[in-house]
């Protein structure tokens, strides 16, 4: 059986660190915590789980800090997590099973990263990450912010999921790092430029974000999934600016880079729904129900678009169109995904009255 070092970088995470460590401690053989300048009780929490605590001066470079944490690991494999990550019991069990069964020839293991959740508690934003790494391969982190690993060799894909529950963000810090890089004349890669655009968006600078996203789309060497995501982010920027025609154009541009996907198709449906064109909205939501979910994608997908979301939106649209029997039908399907959802149960009660009365009227004719 392999051994695992958990490596983390932290700063002012006293509210989250305990949850993270408590959910993973049983699966690892060593916990490495590198603190970059905490002023709260983070270190006190860390000492409850490990005495391998190190200090690293923050230099506006996440990769430097993560590489420092890796440097202190001593076990066969390195697992990295953020303080606001955690594993539920099912995922912890799968991680322990992987630890017992993993072929030592494996260089890296990819796991799911659940970044956001819908009202039903299901993941809506899921990406893939190289999460478990053979220490002897000396894999390194790159990029000062929104850092990434350079991984090669024998890589396996698993369905183990790490949950992420962000409690604090520092968009101004990330934006400052990017703009300091640009001021020094650093040429951003397409990936860095997309991440820069995300930080611009988070800070309300939508026009600048769009300009950077257009640069990414114009790069002939860019990865198609990254360009697909750019379309969605550009549509969001146009939406925030109230530019409806450009918003729709950006959504449709996604079809240049991949076959229609339910998350983007639902987004087009919502565009028409928001603009009170319910017949067109119905068309796009119905199309979403016919599409298969692609497997193995590295970039984020809204998984609810392949399950309950189109049905819920169809309840609303069919209701607006006066087609209440169809609204009831899709509400019933949505309930199969979340039988105790209060909004769906409320819809059911209202729609059942109509369906029952309508059936009785048809019988009397």
From TrEMBL:
This is Glycosyltransferase involved in cell wall biosynthesis. Transmembrane segments: none annotated. It comes from Paenibacillus harenae. It comes from the Bacteria. PROSITE patterns: TPR. It holds the Pfam family TPR_8. CDD domains: Beta4Glucosyltransferase. Keywords: TPR repeat. Coiled coil: none annotated. Residues 5-123 form the Glycosyltransferase 2-like domain. InterPro entries: Glyco_trans_2-like, Nucleotide-diphossugar_trans, TPR-like_helical_dom_sf, TPR_rpt. TPR repeats lie at residues 262-295.
């Amino acid at each position: 059986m392999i051994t695992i070092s958990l490596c983390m970088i932290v700063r002012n995470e006293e509210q989250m660190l305990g949850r993270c460590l408590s959910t993973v401690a049983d699966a690892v053989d060593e916990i490495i915590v590198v603190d970059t300048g905490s002023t709260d009780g983070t270190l006190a929490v860390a000492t409850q789980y490990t005495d391998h605590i190190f200090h690293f001066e923050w230099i506006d470079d996440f990769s430097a800090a993560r590489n420092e944490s890796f440097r202190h690991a001593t076990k066969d494999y390195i697992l990295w997590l953020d303080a606001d990550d955690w594993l539920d019991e099912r995922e912890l069990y799968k991680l322990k099973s992987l630890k017992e069964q993993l072929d030592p020839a494996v260089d890296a293991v990819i796991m799911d990263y659940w970044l956001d959740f819908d009202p039903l508690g299901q993941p809506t934003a899921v990406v893939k990450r190289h999460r478990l790494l053979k220490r002897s391969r000396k894999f390194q982190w790159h990029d000062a912010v929104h850092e990434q690993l350079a991984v090669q060799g024998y890589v396996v894909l698993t369905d183990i999921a790490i949950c992420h529950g962000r409690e604090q963000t520092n968009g101004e810090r990330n934006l400052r790092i990017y703009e300091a890089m640009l001021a020094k004349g650093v040429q951003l890669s397409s990936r860095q430029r997309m991440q820069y655009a995300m930080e611009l968006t988070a800070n309300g600078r939508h026009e600048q974000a769009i300009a950077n996203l257009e640069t990414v789309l114009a790069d002939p060497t860019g990865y198609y999934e990254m360009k697909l995501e750019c379309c969605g982010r550009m549509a969001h920027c146009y939406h925030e600016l109230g530019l409806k025609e450009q918003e729709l154009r950006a959504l449709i541009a996604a079809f240049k880079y991949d076959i229609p996907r339910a998350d983007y198709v639902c987004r087009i449906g919502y565009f028409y729904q928001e603009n009170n064109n319910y017949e067109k909205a119905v068309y796009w939501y119905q199309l979403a129900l016919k599409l298969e979910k692609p497997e193995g994608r590295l970039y984020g997908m809204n998984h609810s678009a392949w399950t309950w979301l189109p049905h819920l939106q169809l309840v609303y649209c069919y209701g607006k169109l006066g087609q209440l029997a169809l609204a009831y039908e899709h509400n019933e399907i949505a309930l199969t995904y979340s039988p105790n959802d209060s909004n769906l149960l409320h819809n059911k009660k209202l729609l059942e009255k109509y369906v029952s009365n309508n059936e009785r009227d048809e019988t009397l004719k």
